[in-house]
Every structure is written in C-alpha cells, then in structure tokens.
Amino acid sequence: MQLSGQLLAYGCLSCLAAGLRFNLPSLDLDMERVANATVHVASRYIATRINTLVIRRDCRDCNDAQRQQQRQMVDQMLQQLAPQLTLLLYSGAPHESVRDYTLFVVHEAHAFAHMYLNYTYSLNEREFYFLVVLLSRQEESQLRNSVGKICFVALLNRVINVVVLALRHDGEIALYAYWLFNQDCTPGINAYQSNRFLSSGKLLRDELFPLRFKNLNNCAISVTGHQLPPHFMYQPADGAPLSENGSFVDLQALRGIDGELLRLLATALRFKVRLMIPEEKSEIFSEDTMNGCFSQLASGKADIAIGGFSGSDPRRVQFTTSVVYHQSYFIFVVRKERYFGPFGQLMRPFRGKVWCCLLLSFLIALVCARCLGKRVGSKHPLENLLATTIGNAVPVHRLPNSGFLRHMMANWLLLTLVLRCAYQAKLFDVLRTNPQKGLPIGLSGLLQQNYTLVSTGYHDFYLRHMTQVINSNFSQRYQMVQEAPPNARLATISLLNNLAHWNMRNRNSSRLTYVREPIYLYQLVIYFQHNSIFKFTFDRKIGQLLSSGVIGHIERRYLQVSYADLGLNLQLMPRITNSMLKGVYRCFAVLMGVASFFFLLERLTLRCRTLRRLLDWLQ
Fold it and tell me: Would you call 353 helix, strand, or coil by DSSP?
C-alpha cells in the first residue's frame, strides 16, 4: 500500500509538470513578441557574458488581466531561458544579494520607481546592468518620458547601464537609452532610441548596452588637484593663480603623471576641466574631519580629486575610487654620509695591514740603503731609492758595481713595479664604488641608530618620541635632512617617485638616498564623490591607457627610479671622471708645490752660502 501510494503521488506530480510545460496559457500576440524579443537579447547578449540572471517583476496598479498577462510572459521567458542561464526570481527583500545583470518586468514606470534596490559599499567596485521591459504601449513622447523616469531611478542607485525594451505605439519593439547632459551642458536625462528590432527578429545594431559617458559634450567637471611632483603639477604659461572657486585651465598646463592622465581623459571623454588647488594639506582624519582636496570633494565643490592619492587608505569609505593606475613604494629617506674624503679614496685600494707592511718594508729599505751606501761608497742612495719606488729611472753611473747589490736592486725594482700595478688596478675599482657609509637596514636599523623622523604627523610605524612634526612639504623636508649637521641623524618619509624626481632635479648636489626596506606599497587612484556615476567610465578609459602602454610611456618621461640613489647608479658613471680623481690631483698639486719650493731654495743658494751649507747637510 505504501509503495502504491508513492507511485500514485509521483504520477500526479509528473502529470502536473507536463501540464505546466506543455499547456501554458497563451499570450496575446504583442506580449508574445515582447517575450521573444526579451529572450533574444538575454540569450544573445547576457548569457554570453555571465551565467546568472535575476528576474524581478512588479505590476503595481494593474488590473487582473494585465497581472495575468505579465505572469504568463515571465513564465514563458523562464521556460525558454532556463537551458542557457541560471535564473533567480527575486521579490526585492533586503537580504537578497545583488547580481551583475537584472531583468525587470514592469507595466508602468512608477512601478520600477517603487522597487527596493539594495546596494552596499562592498559592491561599489562592481558595475551593474539593468534591462527593463516596459509592457504598456504608449505614445512616443510619453514613452520617452517613462524611459527618463526609469533611468533617473537607476542613476540614483549608481547604475549607469540601463536599457528599456518597450513596445511602441506603432507596434515596433525598440530599445531606449539616455543621454545625461543637454547640449548646453545643463543637467538632464534625454531618452533616445538606441536600437530596434528588425522583421527578422534581430537587432539593427549588434549591441545591447551602449557605452555610457563616452562623450560629455564639452561639459565642465570640477577637479581638485594636489600639487605633488612628479605626479601632479599645474604650470600655466602666464603664471596666473587660480581663483578660490576654480578656473577653467588649458590642458597643456597640466604636468606630471596624474596631470597628463587627466589631460588624456579630458580629451578622450570630451569634458572641460575646472581646476581648484587648495593651499592646505589633503588629509582624511574622520568621517566629519578632512582637509584640502578631500574637503572640497566631500562638500560637493569638486567632482573628482587627483594628485598622488592612495587607494589603500582605510578611511576612504566615504568616497569612490578609480582603478589603480600607478604604484610606488612609501620609503624612508636618509642622507648619505661620506667617510672617505678625496685623500681617503686613495688609501682604499689596500687595507690597513697592507699599508703597514708596505711602510715597514720601505723603512727597512731606507735603512739598508743608508748603511750600504756608506760602506760601498754609493752616491745618493736615498735619492735612488725614492726615484725607483715611484717608477723613475736611475742613471747607469749610479747603479752599484757589486753583483749582490745589483741583485737586491733588481728585486726592489720588481717589487715596486708589482705594487704600483696592483695599486693602480685596485684604484680604478675603488673610484667606481660608493664612498658612503652603510645605510640602516630597515625600520629596526633606523631605531637602533636613533634616527629622528621628520614628518607632518605621527605614524603608527615609528615611535612618537623619535618623531619631529613640522608643517612642510616633502621638498622642504628633503632640504632639512640634507642640510642637517654632520652628526645629526634625520630621516623623513615620502614616495620613491618623489625622491627620484628630487635627485634628478638636484643631481649635482643631492646626497639623499632611501632605506632599502619599503614601508608599504602605495597605489595611486582618482577619488570621486560617493557613488559617483563617472567611476566606471573613467575606469574603462584608464584600463585602455594601461593596456596600450600610454601610462607606462608617461611614467618613463617623468620618472627615472635609478635617480633615487645617485651613489649606486652605475649608468651615471660609465667612466672615470675628473671629480673622482680629486685626491690624485691634490696630491700632485702638493708634490709640485714642494718641488717648486725646493727649486726656489736651490736658486737662493747661489747667493746665500749659509743656506747652501744647510741644504748640503740635509742632503
């Protein structure tokens, strides 16, 4: 009995399913055409990009016949789309997650306006697409008005990709989109027919969602910029200052990586730049406290903020950011301390023990030359020893006659030759090496060596009692670190790009370098107002500039990271230069000065016999 009951229940369910599948109530001709058109665009343009589609319907203020027709139409679409897409029927509850593509079926525009649309901050980095099916047949003017209302509601929820599929009064099925600005740049939503269905059931143009905001009709966008070389620099030809409320600027006056990026975006998207540059520093302290560019952005004075801003700031939740277009390291900047002067460089080819051995050998040679010279009657033994040591020739008549002394002389000549060649070879290598002291190794090295951090505020990664807070920009802090007393140990923080730009501008005088262990990776983005509708348009264009290598080309023109450490940049010293031989030139000048002095003394001995006897005694 239990088995027969289960079989009977299974048979009833099978019959019910068959009835639902093959005996659906028939739609009228117009609703069936709309349903087929919706299935076509969903399967042709949505199913090829994603595998899940949310369907929501609302028939507010509908009569029973209209409600029944809408229900039958949705059932037919579910049956035809089920093999191609995973379909989710949402009722608009707050706990329902939002998907990338949503299909709305409404009878009137005000039904869409009363739908609950749930968007949280975690979804602000995603781009959403709405396909709205409007079932009521309306006059063209009334239809465009309804499309405008639907697009307005979508824009309020930060969804810019909206297409309305509607049945026109003449019976043609068409797709409608919108323009955001009027021709005179006044705000407004202008609905237009973006596509239409042919008699074959296909679209006239092979696209469903047209690209949004690819042409802003030369309308103005307020931009607040942060002057930060080499990222953003405003350099007008006439040097005129900007007004407090901003001024329209020539795009050619924008310099730097961020400045040229803004110029390319303005040219590609066709908008004018009304630029503002605040004098105060741009910082976010809390949700209600911020300065500079962020204050102007939060108050609505500016639409976007640019100028070396980090996209990893945890307090950026009240703004919307673009994709990352450049990365740099946040580093500690210190001064290179010299511990070898011009004469010290000449001592570096040999170590201290080697110099001691050489000095001892030379003293022994002097003593031997002095003693043996008196015994064998050699003339000028000390002079001969000094001459052969530095590589000068000795006259034949001054060479000793004894075979043993000649053998000792040959050994001494060979020894000095080898030492001179070794010294000269090592000297060329030493002149190319960095004559600076070793740098601290990371943050721990700075703390162990008691470096004082010069910054505009306190930071979590450095001790407060070892931090000196000053109100200045990075150039002023660089100057302070470089001009500090010799024994002062100061460090500051900045981007690696800032240091490379500073050293490139001051390559002949800069002594600044950086600690090899970075603090963190700094990712540069553009800031928008919260839930800005411009984000995805800018992101799409920035992605094109990144993939084409345009931004990389701009970076190479403004940045040469090798300049971040001039002492270790081998490309800056491909050959031995005169500046490297200062010690040699000074030694030569001293020797020439001493020789000239003794030459003058010898000339004076022709007139002064006392001076002559003194020099003969010394010799």
Answer: helix
Look at the alpha carbons of 51, 176, 127, 537 in this order and tell me if their dihedral is positive or negative. positive
Instruction: State the Cα angle at 210 between 206 and 213, rounded to 5°.
Output: 155
Q: The dihedral of CA 243, 245, 250, 254: what is its sign? A: positive
Indicate the burial class of 224 (C-beta count within 10 angstroms; 0-12, 13-18, 19 or more): buried
Query: Mean pLDDT across the stretch 550-562?
Result: 84
| 193 within 8 A of 229, measured Cβ to Cβ | no
More confident residue, 562 or 137: 137
Tokens 């803004």 correspond to: 262
d(C-alpha 84, C-alpha 100), whole Å = 16
pLDDT-based confidence at residue 17 (cuts at 50, 70, 90): very low
The residues, ordered by sequence, that sit 6+ positions from 389 with a Cβ below 8 Å of its Cβ are 362, 416
CB neighbour list of residue 418: distance below 8 Å, 6 or more residues apart: none
Contact 404, 372 (CB under 8 A): no
Average pLDDT over residues 579-602: 79
Report cis status (omega within 30 of 0) of the bond before 230. yes
Rounded mean pLDDT of 89-116?
85
CA-CA distance, 436 to 541, in Å (whole number)? Answer: 46
Backbone angles phi, psi at 331, to 5 degrees: -135, 165
pLDDT at 602 over 50: yes
**How many CB atoms neighbour CB 215 within 10 A?**
13
CA distance linking residue 385 with residue 338, whole number of Å = 36
139 C-beta neighbours (distance < 10 Å), count? 11
Phi-psi region of 277 (alpha: psi -120 to 50; beta: other; left: phi over 0): beta
Tell me the two tokens of residue 34. Answer: 């709309």
Report the sign of the C-alpha dihedral through residues 20, 21, 27, 33, in that order. positive
Reported as half-sphere exposure (CB side, CA atoms, 13 A), residue 373 has a value of 17
Q: Which helix (H) or strand (E) holds 274?
A: strand 271-276
Span between the terminal Cα atoms of the chain, in Å = 138
pLDDT (tens digit per residue) in 365-388: 878 777 776 666 666 777 777 777
Other C-beta atoms lying within 10 Å of the C-beta of residue 474 = 19
SS3 content of the chain, % helix, strand, coil (to 5): 45, 20, 35
pLDDT at 435: 57
Sign of the dihedral through C-alpha 553, 559, 563, 568: negative
Interatomic CA distance for residues 211 and 322, integer angstroms: 17
Quick one: 200 exposed, middle or buried, by C-beta within 10 A (0-12, 13-18, 19+)?
exposed
Tokens encoding 481: 């670190």
Phi, then psi, of 525 in degrees rounded to 5 = -140, 170
User: How far is the CA of 602 from the CAs of 392, 595, 610, 616, in angstroms?
Assistant: 22, 11, 12, 10
Give dist(CA 611, CA 615) in Å, integer.
Answer: 6
Among 14, 99, 13, smallest CA distance to 56 is for 99
Helix axes 403-432 and 352-376, enclosed angle (nearest 10): 160
pLDDT in tens, 53-65: 999 998 888 888 8
Do residues 225 and 263 lie in contact, with contact meaning Cβ atoms separated by under 8 Å? no
What does the alpha-carbon distance between residue 256 and residue 57 come to, in Å, rounded to a whole number?
Answer: 50
